[in-house]
Amino acid sequence: MYNLLLDILIEVFGILFLVYSFSIISFYLIMTVLSTLEMRDHLKKNKFADYKDVITSPVTPSISVIAPAYNEGQNIVQNAKSLLTLHYGKFEVIIVNDGSKDDTLDKMIESFGLVKTNYAYHKYVETGKIRGVYKSTNPSYAKLTLVDKENGGKADALNAGINLAANEILACIDVDCILSSDSLTRMVRPFMEETNRKVIAVGGVIGVANNCQVKDGTVTEYRVPETLLGRFQVIEYFRAFLMGRMAWTRINGLMLISGAFGFFNKELVLKVGGYFPKTVGEDMELVVRMRRYMEETGQKYKVGFVPDPLCWTEVPESENILSKQRNRWMRGTIETLQLHQKVKLNPKYGVLGLVSYPYWSVFEKGGPIIEMMGFLYTLLMIITGDISALYFVGLFGLMYVFSVMISSFSILFEGVAYNNYKDRSDLNKLMKTVLLEPFLIHPKIVLWGLKGHWHFIKGKGGWGEMIRTGFKKAEDKKKIESPIPLN
Amino acid sequence: MDESHRRRFFKVGSLFLFLIFQLGNLRAQDSLSLQVESKLFEVSGEIPGLSFILEVKENEKDLSIFSLTQPDHNGLWVSDTLVDFRSAAHLRDTIFSASGKKADLAFLLFDQKSEKEAIHEFLDNLSRNELLPSDVSSTSNGFEEGELHILASNVNFSPYYELQTKILSDTKMLLLVATLVLFLVASIILVTIMYVVKKRKKKRDSLTVKFKELSLEPVSNLLFEHSLEELQSFDRKKFESFFPVDHLKNNLFKDVMIMEIISLNKNMKGEFKTKLKTIYRKLGLDAHSIQKLSSKKWDVITSGIVEINEMDVVEAVEKVEKFAKSENFYVRSNAVATLLNISNDPELKVLVDQDFPLSRWQQMVYFRIIKFINNSQEKVRVDLLFESKNESVRVFGYKLVRYLGLFELLEILINKYKNATIPEKLEMIKCFDVFSYQDCLNHLHRDLSTADKGLFLGIVGVLQNIGNPISEVILLEKLKNGLDFESKKAVMQALNVLNPDVLGEWTRQADDMEVYQIFNHLTDPVLSHV
């Protein structure tokens, strides 16, 4: 009797794993097609867009750039100056010092001639205690505001910035990101183009800056990172941004806008109560909450995405830091999905409820668990000899070739769309990484994801330490320090 | 057939049937005997309750050497009771081979002599209840036959389950094969498409570079080495003689040429612009641009419209007009922009008639064109936009009043203000603000009681710049009645500009931390000048 039950269980699990593999392949194939169509349309549309007008036109919306900083003393001044030199007419820069333990505040005060002011603001969104709001006595830095507050985490710092923001659109960024000078002009385009839907948020691509040549705040020469982990993240970013998010944009199902580079409609952000500071996935949570609001109030809306390379960041190349990042991402995903369970498979929420949420639940949140179970199942079958060699080799080969195909396609995709990595040796290195990734890196990513689950269950929180080595081409960034006429 | 024959036939038939039945019965007896014995051969060792005795009828020979006895001395030799069938069978064979006598095997069931039918049933019963000991020495295909029987009898007869197992394993394989096929086909298609796209793009890019080089020099020569009159006097053949003849019919070459000419046109002024347009037309590139309007692809159509716009191909106006209400945003936007630019329509009819709401992007583009027309050609009739049925067009009209400095239209605005929608009012008050149009104050004072926060803040902002003593009083009243933070800050800021003393006095009397904070903000020297 028990043997029979076991046999049935084995059969059922076998079928389930096969269905899972089948589904994930189908999803990826569909996403590949959707992203290709979306990219094709985007490139065509780009041909007819004249961005020069955006900078000076009185019609364009005003932007508040909010950049939280925690222990960023090493680069904060260059980063703030880089933000102030962005090519756009109506914008302000709000740097929020989130209780840094280093000299971030002092460096800012000293470099920009900042003084503490009696700035009156209202706490539309509840935040930690604000110690002071600083403005510069130098009219050249009139666009700069520094908020000094007690440490409360990234979401809390962003909320503090939102309370002070005076403009129509919020650009929430990581202060250490390198932004292209035309990043604002390009990112406001979706907000400006839409005629019959409200654009509630627009996400952008994050490029990997490690080992790249940076000049005047823009990556001028692309080179792949030296380490396997770094190169893996280049490919992962291609897959996630160029393919994944483009595909979701095609069906208006985007649920995540990277916290490092996201633009939001301020009015709506305030309506939904700003960032939720109790989750580490505050970027995803905010987008889901905004979407929910729009769905529940029956308003037509869109979450846009701009795939042009406009923002770059230094990715972690050490396993320790990367594991903490992935752990945090997983916890953020679980927390967001837990918070918005109401959306799950609810037709009232359209694509969000019927496609995006289930996808994230099964493949992003459940992925590591299912993969681990699949691995243990296969191991058990091999030990008991119950697995057909053909079945095993077939399934394993399928998943491997599929993974290689998707990654290769993403490289090819980037090549067709932007062709940033022109050096043949770089492409060879990326291809080598594609072949090795399923064996050397993917298992670790699964383990870190599982650890995220475990930490979520245990209630462990926090961001982990993000050690920055500074950009390798920091010399280039220093050039920004030279006096540049500022509006 | 007569009666006697019929009877004889019946008798013979009956006898035949009887014989057949008897024969069948005999065969059945033989068969039963065989079945019992074969079953017993399969069993190893003793079967509880079953024993055997061999009986041989022999009067002459002494069979005691086979351990047989003659208990009644009547010539019937019998063996001891044997519990093992194989021993009994072996003894029977030995007797037969030594003496030529066939021994009969008698079955004892619980020490009672029994018929073979009873033994057969008894064995069947044992089999069903798995009580028959198996023969360890009997094997088949590596498996022990007895074991196989026990294993088989362990599994209940369940044809559905067997079928299900088969289907499940087949389905799994089926799914696997289907997945592999799907994957293989899809990946081949995707990779092929990407490969083709990449190849075509690479080829196109290299051709574009090549064509750029080929076209730039002749265009520059024509532009700088020939006067406008000369260019106008050249016929098409003459123009074509400057360019590589082989490529002139190539669409990509034409596109690259147009791109280069447009690029130069954007950076040139005066006569050079006319020269470029002459080259464009004399080479028949205008026809190429117009031809694009017949395409089914929106991007090709848009590209044609853009070229027509840049090179002022006025004769294509009618064709472009068809696209002014296109469903496609890019086609529509560029068609309207082109018509605004080249149709010589200062009444902006194409805008007035727009059904689709204007996006900010469109407004940005149209504003640039209208500003250019207004400054360089004749004055545009922005006031006609106010009559449009499309609210976004009317709002755009009010914006143009501000952007183009059309203060003469303020009177129309003030007349329309009362019945305007909130978005319209928001734009109108900005116009009043820009031109410090004090005639609007009554309207603004009245609208300070609006429930729309955006309009309220807008009006307060205007009053800050153009307000009068009445405005001060109304604003102060508003403050006293309690406002949210943002409105309070705006009103205090306005009052601070209109009459700082009044504000200072009121603040001193107010028992509100928020008011003090705002007042401190407004009077902070750093904040007041940044």
Structure characterization notes:
The complex is a heterodimer of chains A (487) and B (530). Chain A has 487 residues and is of the alpha/beta class. Chain A has a domain at 25-48 and 177-362: Spore Coat Polysaccharide Biosynthesis Protein SpsA, Chain A (Alpha-Beta Complex). Helix content of chain A is 53%, strand content 15%. Chain A has 17 helices and twelve strands. Chain A has a ten-stranded mixed sheet, sandwiched between helices. The longest helix of chain A has 46 residues, at 2-47. Chain B has 530 residues and is mainly alpha-helical. Among the domains of chain B are: 41-154, no CATH class; 436-530. Helices cover 67% and strands 5% of the residues of chain B. In chain B, the strands form two sheets. Chain B has a four-stranded antiparallel sheet. Chain B has a two-stranded antiparallel sheet with strand order 5-6. The longest helix of chain B is centred in the middle third of the chain and has 67 residues, at 159-225. The radius of gyration of chain B is 56 Å and the shape is elongated.
Any low-confidence stretches of chain A, pLDDT <50, length ≥5?
A: 464-487
Briefly, what CATH class of the domain at 25-48 and 177-362 in chain A?
Answer: Alpha Beta
Strand residue percentage of chain B: under 5%
Number of helices of chain A: 17
Largest two-chain interface: A-B, 58 and 62 residues
Oligomerization: heterodimer
Q: Supply the helix-strand structural class of chain B.
A: mainly alpha
Q: Based on the structure given, which CATH architecture of the domain at 25-48 and 177-362 in chain A is correct?
A: Alpha-Beta Complex
Short key terms for the protein model shown above:
heterodimer; A: 487 residues; alpha/beta; two-stranded antiparallel sheet; 17 helices; 12 strands; disordered C terminus; B: 530 residues; mainly alpha; four-stranded antiparallel beta sheet
